[in-house]
Design goal:
heterotrimer; A mainly alpha; B mainly alpha; C alpha+beta; B: Cytochrome-c3 Hydrogenase, chain B; 3-stranded antiparallel beta sheet; 15 helices; 48% helix; globular; C: alpha+beta; Alpha-Beta Plaits; 5 helices
Chain lengths: 327, 380, 178
C-alpha cells in the first residue's frame, strides 16, 4: 500500500467516498429488504407490501424506524462482552469489504493489488462474530445455530476461494480492477462456467441463504444464532447478511461477469452495468431461496466436501494445464 | 401436584456428567404442529430418546359431550380435528344414525361423500404446504393454499362455513347443493389435476427434497401395527388398509377407487401416498357427482329430541389422518353416558416417539411433518 | 460416472423447480386487497344470529319458546318473554346473544318453530371488551313494538268475533311470512 493516500486532498476524498459507501450500504439494505419481500410475494402469487408508500417502497423505512425504536433487551445471563461485540464484528468486515470494488473505470476507493485476498480475509472475520453471538447468548438454540453456521461457513469458504483462483490464473492479477480490465474481450464466465457455478453456489452457502440456511432455520431453531437479539442489534445482523449477499454478488460480477464493462455501443455509464449485474445476481439468489427446501446439515457439509471442493480442484488443475498449453 | 402424578423423573439442571443434553422442542414452536412438546435427549445432533408430552391442547370434548344432548355435540365434532372438520362432523352424524336406526336419503349420502372427499383433499393440501414449510420451502405452501381456497369457497357457498362445519344432521345434511356446486366441484377437480405436474416438478422430483425424505423416518410395518398407526402412515408401510374399503360406511362400496400404498415406510412414501390419495379422492368425487340423484336431503319424519335406547355403538370412518372412531354409550336419556373419540393422530404420534430414536434433530421436524399430526385431535 | 449422471439429474430437477416458480412469478396475484376490496359474501355466510323482520307483520315473530336457549351448545342465548294482552302466544321482551361464545352451529335456527332466526352478514365487528359482544337482538324492533302489540291485539279481537267472516277471519294473528 502506497503512502499517497495520506496527502490531504486524497485523504478528504477517501473519507467522503467512505461516507458515500456507508450510506449506500444502508440504502442497499433497505432496498434489498423491500425487493426480497416483493419478489418473494410475486413468486408466491401475492402482493407483498403495498400500503406504506407507493408499491410499499417506504415499508423498509417504517421497519427501520421500528427497529430503532425498539427496546434493547439484554438477557440476564449472557456473556456481556461477547454478546455486545458480536453484531459489530459481523457488520464491520462487510462494510470494509464493500469499499474495495471498482464500480466504474475510475470509480474505486483504492485499488489494492491484492484486492481479492483482502476481500476473503475480511469475509473470514464475519463468522467469528456469528460464533460469538451464538456462544454469548447463553441459549442452546443459539449455540446450535452458531456451531452450524461456523462449520458451514468454513466448509464453503474453500470452494469459494478455489473457484476464484482460475480467474486469477487467467487474468494474472489479484487486483480487482485489473481483473475487470482483463475481461474487455470476453467475460470470464464464458471461459470458466463451472467455476462460476461453483462460486455462486458457495456464495449462496456463505451468506446462509436457502437452500443452505440451516443456521437460521426458522422452523427448527427459532432464529438460530440471533435468537436472543432484538431491536437494533438484530438489525445489524440482518443488514450484515444483506450486505454480505451484495458483496458476494459484486465479486461474482467483477470476476466473472465483466464488472463495469458493457456493450460499448450503448451510451450507458459503467456503474450502471455493474449494479445491473449485481442486482440481477441478487434476484437469482432470491429466486433460489424461494424455490428450494433446505438441505439438512450433514447433507450440506457432504455436498461441500464431497462435490464442490473436488470439482473446484479439478477445474483449477484443468485451467492451469490449459493455460500452460495454450500460452 | 406431586401427590397426584408422583415425583417427576429426575432431570439434572446443569449438565448430565456426560456429553448429552436435554432440549425441549415446543410447546411453543414455529413448526406447524400445534402445541406439542418433544422432550429430546440429545448427544450433539443425534437423538437418544424422544418423549412426546401432550395435553397442552386439551379442551375436554368428551366431557362436554356428557353435559350436552346428542344434537348439541355437533359443533364440537368438527372442532376435534378442524382440518377434517366435515369428515368428523358427518362421522358423528353417521354414528348417531346407526345408534338411532335412522335411514339417510340417497341424495344426502351422495352429497356427504362429495363434501367429505373435498375435505380430505383440502386437508392433504394443507399438509402438503405445511410439510414443505417445515422443510424450508416456503413457496409450495402458498400454491397449495391457493388450491385449498377454491375448496373452501365451494364449501362455504353451500354450508356457510369454511373450516368447522356444522353441516350434517341426524339423517342427512342441512343445506342442499345446486348445479353451480356441481359445476364448481368438477372445475376444481380439473384444476387440481392440472396442478399436480407443477407440484411434482417443484417438490417431488426435487433432488434436495428427495435427499431429505428418502430413507428418513422409517416406520416399519411391525412398529406401525403395534402402535395402531392408521391412515396414510400405515399405507406407506405397505399395508393396504383403508376403512372405506375394509369396513365401508355410507355408500363408499359403490365407488371404485384404488388404495395407494407404498412399501418403503419412510417420509417419501408417506408423501407419495397422500398425493396419490388426492387423485383417488378426485375419482370418487367424479363418480359421486355423476350418480347424484334428485330427492330430499333429510328424512321425511324428523325428530327433534333424540333418546337412543340403552346400549353402545362404535362407528369408524377413514379421516384424512386415519381411523377415526366414535364410541357412544347411551343410558336411555337425552344425554350420552360416555362419548369416546378414537383419534388417529394419537396412535400415530406415539409411533413417532418410538421412531425418533437415532435420528437427528433436523430430521425430527421432517418426520413429525410427514406423519401429519394434528395436536388438538391428540388431546381432544 | 454414475456420480456425474446423478449430479446432472439433480441439477436438472432443480432447474425444473426453478421453472415452476418463474412461471408463477408472471401470473396474476390472488390476493384480495382488503380493505380496498371488500369480500363478496355468499348467501349462506354465517355471522351472528339476528331476528327476521317479516314484512307481513312488520316485526319479528319470537314466541319465547326457549327452544333455542335449550339447544344452544354454548349456552349463549338469553330469552325472556311475556304474554301480551289479548294474544294467545308469548312474545320476547329480552333476546340477548353472547356472540363471543357462539360457534355458528345453526342449531338455534334449525329448531325455531316460527323461523324467526337467521344469520346476519356482518364480518367486521370489532371491540375492545368481551361484553361488547353481547348483542341485543331486539334493538331494531323496540321502536315499533308497541304498535305491533296493538295491531295484534286488534286482529285477535276481530278474529274472535263470530259474526265477522272472510278477510277479517283470515287475518287472525299475524302469521309468519317466509
Amino acid at each position: 500500500m502506497t503512502l499517497h493516500a495520506l496527502w490531504p486532498h486524497t485523504a478528504l476524498m477517501t473519507v467522503l467516498a467512505g461516507a458515500v459507501l456507508m450510506a449506500y450500504v444502508a440504502f442497499n439494505g433497505m432496498l434489498l429488504v423491500w425487493l426480497e419481500r416483493k419478489v418473494s410475494a410475486r413468486f408466491q402469487r401475492r402482493l407483498g407490501p403495498t400500503e406504506v408508500g407507493w408499491a410499499g417502497l417506504l415499508q423498509s423505512a417504517a421497519d427501520v424506524i421500528k427497529l430503532l425504536a425498539k427496546q434493547l433487551i439484554t438477557p440476564r445471563h449472557v456473556d456481556r462482552p461477547l454478546y455486545h461485540v458480536a453484531p459489530v464484528l459481523v457488520f464491520v468486515p462487510v462494510l470494509a469489504g464493500i469499499s474495495l470494488f471498482p464500480f466504474d473505470r475510475h470509480l474505486q476507493l483504492h485499488d489494492f493489488n491484492i484486492g481479492l485476498v483482502l476481500l476473503f480475509a475480511l469475509a473470514g472475520l464475519g463468522f467469528l462474530g456469528i460464533f460469538m453471538a451464538g456462544w454469548g447468548s447463553n441459549n442452546k438454540y443459539a449455540l446450535l445455530g452458531a456451531m452450524r453456521a461456523v462449520a458451514q461457513n468454513i466448509a464453503y469458504e474453500i470452494p469459494l476461494i478455489l473457484a476464484t483462483l482460475p480467474v486469477v490464473l487467467l487474468a494474472r492479477t489479484m487486483s480487482l480492477r485489473e481483473v475487470v480490465e482483463a475481461q474487455q474481450q470476453l467475460w470470464f464466465v464464458v471461459q470458466q462456467p463451472v467455476a462460476f457455478a461453483i462460486y455462486f453456489i458457495a456464495a449462496v452457502a456463505e451468506t446462509n441463504r436457502a437452500p443452505f440456511d440451516i443456521p437460521e432455520a426458522e422452523s427448527e431453531l427459532v432464529a438460530g444464532f440471533h435468537t436472543e437479539y432484538s431491536g437494533m442489534r438484530f438489525a445489524f445482523f440482518f443488514l450484515a447478511e444483506y450486505t454480505n449477499m451484495t458483496i458476494v454478488c459484486m465479486i461474482a460480477a467483477t470476476l466473472f461477469l465483466g464488472g463495469y464493462i458493457g456493450p460499448s455501443w450503448l451510451p450507458v455509464p459503467g456503474w450502471v452495468w455493474f449494479f445491473g449485474k449485481v442486482y440481477l445476481l441478487l434476484l437469482v439468489m432470491m429466486w433460489l431461496r424461494w424455490t428450494f427446501p433446505r438441505l439438512r446439515f450433514d447433507q450440506l457439509m457432504s455436498f461441500a466436501w464431497g462435490v464442490l471442493i473436488p470439482l473446484a480442484i479439478v477445474n483449477l488443475l484443468l485451467t492451469a494445464v490449459a493455460i500452460k498449453v495454450w500460452r | 401436584m406431586a401427590e397426584i402424578w408422583g415425583e417427576p423423573a429426575p432431570r439434572p439442571l446443569a449438565g448430565n456428567g456426560d456429553d448429552t443434553y436435554y432440549l425441549n422442542m415446543g410447546p411453543q414452536h414455529p413448526s406447524m404442529h400445534g402445541v406439542l412438546r418433544l422432550l429430546l435427549h440429545l448427544r450433539g445432533e443425534e437423538i437418544l430418546e424422544a418423549e412426546p408430552v401432550i395435553g397442552y391442547a386439551h379442551r375436554a370434548h368428551e366431557k362436554m359431550a356428557e353435559n350436552r344432548n346428542y344434537l348439541m355435540f355437533l359443533p364440537n365434532s368438527s372442532r376435534v380435528d378442524y382440518l377434517s372438520g366435515m369428515i368428523y362432523n358427518l362421522a358423528y352424524c353417521q354414528a348417531m344414525e346407526r345408534l338411532l336406526g335412522i335411514e339417510v336419503p340417497e341424495r344426502a349420502e351422495h352429497i356427504r361423500v362429495i363434501v367429505s372427499e373435498l375435505n380430505r383433499i383440502s386437508s392433504h393440501l394443507l399438509w402438503f404446504g405445511t410439510f414443505l414449510l417445515d422443510l424450508g420451502g416456503v413457496t409450495p405452501f402458498l400454491y397449495a393454499f391457493d388450491d385449498r381456497e377454491e375448496i373452501l369457497t365451494i364449501l362455504e357457498r353451500v354450508t356457510g362455513s369454511r373450516l368447522t362445519y356444522s353441516y350434517g344432521r341426524f339423517g342427512g345434511v342441512t343445506q342442499d347443493v345446486d348445479a353451480l356446486f356441481v359445476e364448481q366441484t368438477l372445475a376444481f377437480v380439473a384444476r387440481l389435476r392440472g396442478r399436480m405436474p407443477d407440484y411434482h416438478a417443484l417438490v417431488s422430483d426435487n433432488v434436495i427434497f428427495r435427499h431429505r425424505c428418502e430413507g428418513v423416518g422409517l416406520i416399519d410395518q411391525a412398529t406401525a401395527l403395534r402402535y395402531g398407526v392408521t391412515g396414510p402412515c400405515l399405507r406407506a408401510c405397505g399395508v393396504p388398509y383403508d376403512l372405506r374399503r375394509a369396513e365401508p360406511y355410507g355408500i363408499y362400496s359403490r365407488f371404485s377407487f384404488e388404495i395407494p400404498t407404498q412399501p418403503a415406510g419412510d417420509i417419501f412414501a408417506r408423501y407419495l401416498v397422500r398425493l396419490a390419495e388426492m387423485e383417488q379422492s378426485c375419482r370418487i368425487i367424479e363418480q359421486a357427482v355423476a350418480a347424484l340423484p334428485a330427492g330430499p336431503i333429510m328424512p321425511e319424519k324428523q325428530k327433534k329430541r333424540f333418546k337412543p335406547e340403552v346400549g353402545e355403538s362404535y362407528f369408524a370412518v377413514e379421516s384424512a389422518r386415519g381411523h377415526f372412531g366414535i364410541y357412544i354409550v347411551s343410558d336411555g336419556s337425552e344425554l350420552p353416558l360416555r362419548l369416546k373419540l378414537r383419534t388417529p393422530s394419537f396412535a400415530n404420534l406415539s409411533a413417532v416417539g418410538a421412531v425418533l430414536k437415532g435420528t437427528m434433530i433436523a430430521d425430527t421436524v421432517a418426520i413429525l411433518g410427514s406423519v401429519d399430526v394434528v395436536l388438538p385431535e391428540v388431546d381432544r | 460416472m454414475s456420480v456425474l449422471v446423478r449430479l446432472l439429474r439433480g441439477v436438472w430437477s432443480l432447474t425444473l423447480g426453478l421453472g415452476v416458480t418463474l412461471k408463477n412469478l408472471f401470473r396474476r396475484p390472488v390476493t384480495q386487497t382488503y380493505p380496498h376490496q371488500k369480500p363478496e359474501l355468499s348467501a349462506a355466510f354465517r355471522s351472528a344470529i339476528a331476528l327476521v323482520d317479516f314484512p307481513a307483520s312488520g316485526s319479528h315473530d319470537c314466541v319465547a319458546c326457549m327452544q333455542c336457549v335449550n339447544i344452544c351448545p354454548s349456552f349463549c342465548i338469553k330469552v325472556e318473554g311475556d304474554k301480551p294482552e289479548g294474544l294467545k302466544r308469548k312474545r320476547a321482551t329480552v333476546f340477548e346473544v353472547d356472540y363471543a361464545l357462539c360457534s355458528l352451529c345453526g342449531l338455534c335456527i334449525d329448531v325455531c318453530p316460527t323461523s324467526t332466526l337467521k344469520y346476519s352478514k356482518t364480518y367486521d365487528d370489532v371491540g375492545y371488551r368481551r361484553d361488547q359482544f353481547v348483542y341485543d337482538l331486539l334493538t331494531p324492533f323496540r321502536a315499533g313494538e308497541a304498535a305491533w302489540r296493538e295491531r295484534a291485539r286488534v286482529a285477535a279481537v276481530e278474529a274472535a268475533q263470530p259474526a265477522s267472516a272472510g278477510p277479517a277471519a283470515a287475518a287472525g294473528e299475524p302469521e309468519v311470512g317466509r
